[in-house]
Amino acid sequence: MLHTTVPLADAVGKHISHFCAFDLGKNDGANHCAHLVSHLMGYEFDATCKNASLAEKQRPEKGACIRVDEIFNRLRETGPWDERPAHLQTCLIFVCRRSNMRHLDHRPRMESSAAKHIGIHLADTVWHYSNRSDQVVSDRVADFRTKFRRQYQLAGDPVEFYYGSLS
Question: Contact at 8 Å (CB) between 17 and 25?
């Protein structure tokens, strides 16, 4: 069962500031896909939205991870989307260019790059943050994959999709 801080359907149409009490949540120029997923899932590790200033670090509210690669690399189970195990029907979905992935010890590892994205997958739907629209959106998996293939495609550097367990 998926446990998020708010029901996914209730998140659709909301701006990141609805979930984040820190200054980063007011910055429409930032990439908020990992930021949103982390607030919804309660991921507070590595670089967070709470780390922007000393004053914010001292506030009692929880921060949230802001980097896609830091989430991916912490998960205990990851792999190519098309090889997703049957038991992971609810999971995270990642997209990036092939050049952004490394394989260490038979395990994929995501490098830092601007061309990457994350969403929450449940029942053939992906909930994620649209940085272009500055709001939470949901897409069917096929539409999500088409959208990001078009957006991230570079000649000679294919777009790839990965799954990740929720913890």
Answer: yes
Successive 10-residue mean pLDDT values, the chain, 167 residues: 89 97 94 97 94 82 95 96 94 96 88 93 97 97 97 89 94
**Coil, strand or helix at 112:** coil
Q: Can you give the length of the chain in residues? A: 167
In order of 90, 99, 118, the CA distances from 48 in angstroms are 24, 25, 16
Quote the pLDDT of residue 123: 92
pLDDT score for 1: 66
Query: What residues form DSSP beta bridges with 9?
Result: none
* Residue 10 parent element (H or E): helix 8-11
Which residue, among 1, 145, 156, 136, has the nearest Cα to 81 in the 3D structure?
Answer: 145
CB atoms within 10 A of CB 131: 16
